[in-house]
Amino acid sequence: MAPADPRQVEEIARLLANRVRQDAARSGIARRDAHPKPHGLVSARFEVSADLPPALRHGLFATPRTFPAWIRFSNGSPRVQSDRRPDQRGMAIKVMGVPGEKLQSDPGEELAHDLVLASAPCFFIRTADDYVSFVRAQVKRPAFRVLAFFVGPNPLRWRLHELRALIRSLKRTADLLDTRYWSQVPYRLGPNIVKYSARPASTAACWPSSRDPQFLRTRLIERLKQGPVAFDFLVQVQTDTRTMPSDDATVEWDEARAPFHKVATIHVPRQDIDTAERWATVDRLAFSPWHCLAEHEPLGPMNQIRRQVYLLVASTRAEINGQRESQTTAVG
Ligand code: HEM
Questions:
Q1: C-alpha–C-alpha distance, residues 126 and 245, integer Å
Q2: Residue 53 phi, psi dihedral angles, 5° rounding
Q3: N or C of the chain: less Cβ packing under 10 Å?
Q4: How many angstroms is it from 151 CA to the middle of ligand 1?
């Protein structure tokens, strides 16, 4: 698959940052272009396992130790909408206090290593060309234009594989802490190419059905008031370059042929996340797959696009909202 052309990346970043500006002019606040609706900012500990095989002991996982971390849970839709609608949910983890130079970092966050995950195993766009067409359709808004990206006037150019991947990724969610998350796109891990996943490791909650459009936030707050939960953090090592491509994020790597290995535990202690300080901080934070150690270099055309896009969208938000300084360390 062709790598992203820098001019395409620039166009995507410009179109999305413009959309953030236009939305901010209407609403008075600049939100993320994707995953704008947060459910909460959660404090956690990222404990690297002691018994890892040497092949996985690289970068963040090189030595067994425990890092403090923040997790932002979100809805994926660019529109802030009810939690009852099918969607992808985001789990963005900021592991803190990680020594070593990062491929990209925000001022004051040089020690942060971000792991950006969502609740589907694969992405729905393969190439940089397609991403440009998708964003052009998306910024023009009416839903039929986005639909035309998948099934346009010429049936020979329908993108049914992508449409299926998108539909499969949009799910109803009962509880963010009982949901599994994936990186969807690959990363280097020393000599390996891997994908990440976070899998719930606590007993699932049993909730009655709810009509509350914010029920995911309510349940997150309630559950963490009651007690701790945990996730296993896993890596899946690529074992075949043909059936597990690193340049096509629409292909799910078969777990039977490339099993996930646990490399860390994410401990989420009992806490009150419903505080003015947490809500003030959750949207000031900026995550990026490029906030990482070089041993974890993000791979593939989608990650190439993300390098510039996340930076520009986050700095546009910060500029409009007047929150240039890093707030990570300010959270209690
Ligand atoms: C070319 C592909 C992609 C583009 C252009 C893109 C774009 C964006 C943008 C602009 C943001 C907002 C950043 C900010 O303002 O701080 C964002 C956030 C996010 N994206 Fe992507 N994205 C892409 C692929 C992916 C993939 C493959 C995943 C899968 C895990 C993903 C998961 C997320 C999550 C979870 C967030 C929210 C992070 C947070 O909580 O702050 N994105 N994305």
A1: 11
A2: -70, 150
A3: C
A4: 24
Kindly list the distances between the CA atom of residue 87 and the CA atoms of 118, 166, 170, 258, in Å, as whole numbers in the listed order.
10, 10, 4, 27
Q: What is this structure's pTM? A: 0.96
CA of residue 223 to ligand 1 center, whole Å: 26
Give the C-alpha separation, 112 to 110, whole Å: 6
| Domain range 6-327, its CATH number among 3.40.50.1110, 1.20.1730.10, 2.40.180.10, 3.30.300.30 | 2.40.180.10
pLDDT along the chain (332 residues), means of 10: 86 96 94 97 98 97 98 96 98 98 94 98 96 90 82 93 97 98 97 98 93 97 98 98 97 98 98 97 95 98 97 96 56 41
Ligand 1: residue of 250, 292, 310, 328 to mutate (most ligand atoms within 8 A of CB) is: 310
Tokens of 76: 């994926």
Q: Which residue's alpha carbon is nearest to atom 34 within ligand 1?
A: 90
